[in-house]
Amino acid sequence: MLRGFYTAASGMIAQQRNQEMISNNLANVNTPGFKADQATLRSFPELLMKQMGTKSVPTTNGLQLKENRTIGSLSTGVYAQESIPNFQQGPIRETGMITDLAIVDGEKPEETGGIFFSVANDNGDIRYTRNGNFTVDGEGFLTTNEGHYVLDQAGNPIQTNGLDFVVTTNGMVQFEDGNALLGIVYIANANDLVKEGNLLSADEAGVEAEDPATAGANFSVLQQTLESSNVNPLQAMTEMMQAYRTFEQNQRVLKTYDESMGKAVNEIGRLG
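The line above is the sequence of Flagellar basal-body rod protein FlgG; the predicted structure tokens follow.
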């Protein structure tokens, strides 16, 4: 009976984490370039149950032999193994803002590959994003709305000296004093990237960024447009309701086990 407690509880914990993930997806439904997370649930290893005992052999000395009888397998519950971002491209929409940029994916050599803007986080480390909702700060640098510098191909901040600039489809930023090529990179297995707030990190997984042209990945950059979040609100709401119902079912099972345990302690024990 105690195993039933653990199995039901593990199901509740898994669905709670699943619901938290779906809630985060819904909260970012209007965040440009946001990639929805997908939970992977996995069962714990099954146990093979056996009954251990002895068997009497009809002999003069009453010989006892050990006996193992297979009962069957027992599932030990489920857990949320990990959450994997869905890097499918979101809808492209026009904004009319000069600083808004969107990457439109073309052919990629790997199905799991992704193309990203390079930015610098607060510590100056290189991070990646699909959110092209940029702006120009007071010093004339192209930055994200959180203040992170947008980097060029050499890893340097891009100085535009104002809003008078044009971005070509190959990612070249052309302004009055010159030009700079956006630091757009290709990641062969984007699923290995780790989320850090609204940015993606390749440090922990040891992922290497490549030049899209060298890797054989095609893309185009559109100015005055943004890539919308790829969260489907209707699907997310359906998944949330399903997770809630599954949580409730595990909760009822847990309550039933609790009531049975109470009877075993208070009633059956009293009869003895």
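Note on the example: The radius of gyration is 28 Å. The mean pLDDT is 86.
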